[in-house]
Structure formats: C-alpha cells, structure tokens
Amino acid sequence: xxxxxxxxxxxxxxxxxxxxxxxxxxxxxxxxxxxxxxxxxxxxxxxxxxxxxxxxxxxxxxxxxxxxxxxxxxxxxxxxxxxxxxxxxxxxxxxxxxxxxxxxxxxxxxxxxxxxxxxxxxxxxxxxxxxxxxxxxxxxxxxxxxxxxxxxxxxxxxxxxxxxxxxxxxxxxxxxxxxxxxxxxxxxxxxxxxxxxxxxxxxxxxxxxxxxxxxxxxxxxxxxxxxxxxxxxxxxxxxxxxxxxxxxxxxxxxxxxxxxxxxxxxxxxxxxx
Length: 273
Description:
Elements: E1 2-8, H1 16-27, E2 31-37, H2 43-52, E3 55-60, H3 65-71, E4 74-75, H4 77-82, E5 87-91, E6 94-98, H5 101-112, E7 121-125, H6 129-140, E8 145-150, H7 153-162, E9 172-175, E10 184-189, E11 207-215, H8 224-231, E12 236-238, H9 241-256, H10 263-272
Parallel strand pairs: 1-2, 1-3, 4-6, 7-8, 7-10, 8-9, 10-11, 11-12
Antiparallel strand pairs: 3-5, 5-6
Helix pairs in contact: 1-9, 5-6, 5-9
C-alpha cells in the first residue's frame, strides 16, 4: 500500500494518523499513514529515507515547516506566500511543497462555522508562521478589511506589507493597543498565547454583533482566548480542531485526488477530547 506520514518533533501526540486513517476508510483508499519522529538535526535525511523506502508524501509539523520549504523543488502559490510547507508530495519530477493550513482554517470558518468572510471585517492576531499561512487564503475570500495585529507592531506591519503586491485587498498591520475603537466580525487568534494559558491583551469592544472568535489552538475546553472573547461579547466561539481536520483533508485531496467528508471525522475527534 502507498505510504504516508506526518513528521515532527515531538510527534507522539499527533492526531493526523487517526484522521487520515478515517479518511482512507471512508474513501476506499489503500494506504498507510504513520507518525514519524524527525531528529532535530536530520530532517532532510529522514525525509529522503522515507521517500527512498517508497513513501508517497508527508505532512510536516513543528518545527520543520521552514526546512520543508527549503527541501521542496517546487511550491504552490499558497506555500510560496506562506514561506512554509506542511505538505510534501513526492513525484517523478521532484518534491512539491504545499501549505494547506490557511485553506483549512478558511473552510472551517466558512463551512463548518457557517461564517462568511466575504465582505466582513477580519482581525488576525499574531505575525508568526501560523498567521503567515493564513493571510493569502483570507485575502482571496474578499473580506471588507483585514487587520493584522501583533504585540510587536513592526512585525505585523512587515507581514501586511508582504501581501501588498498580490493585487488583492491590502491588509493593515498594527500593534494590539491600536485596535482600540475598532470592531470586527471575525477575530482569529494565531498567537501562541494559549499554549502558556494566556490570552492576547486586547482592548475592549472589538467584537461586533454576531461576531466569531476563532482560536487556532484546541483542547478539552475553552482556551484562554475564547474565554476572554466570550466575556467581551463574541457571539460565536470556535477552537482550531476543525482547522486540523480541514487542512488534513486538503493534503489528502492533493495526494489521492479525492476529497473526504470532514464532518463525521470532526465529530469523532470532538467526542474523544
């Protein structure tokens, strides 16, 4: 059977093998999918060994997405824009690098959460890798505005400027304090604050009526960001579990040419948290 895997360090916690196993069973695809621990100093060698042993593709997670970008011979436009790769496709013409994270979050927001992005005011918190992979898909969804805010304002401004020449809406970058007095329909937390049991220090009054607060992190309960958003008046809350499933479905489709149904897989994962 065709072999696939997710490579990262650490990796034992990954839900990707279960997700792709469910996708394969659902679509009748004959494949195996494993978790592969990548040594911090031997990412490229580990990937090459997996490919030489017949591997067809890899998902890539922390901390190897930048190394995966450098390893790929070709990149999709969304991977080029993100500057990072989370999906590798091994072919006779070399290695294709893609980034499915942004498409995953956009589909989770617009389909699973039934929250349109087109014509809405969107706030993206953070200016690191998680935020970077999200900007182009958000812009392609034609929001009324996109503001990128970060604790260090200059990093947000730099990230916004990188997307000024794409022929799409021009995003604006600023510091967190500069958000005072503004209101948004969709607020996405792409910072790592929830990992340290904290929430970004945001001004009050950001959430417009009917707004969605979305945290890329997920867990057994609300994240600190979501608890704060509820207290501040966000109407709808979502963690990032749906993003995890949807980005996996994007990778699966790229590899196998068939799109799995994500709703039943997401429901199974949610029930097991």
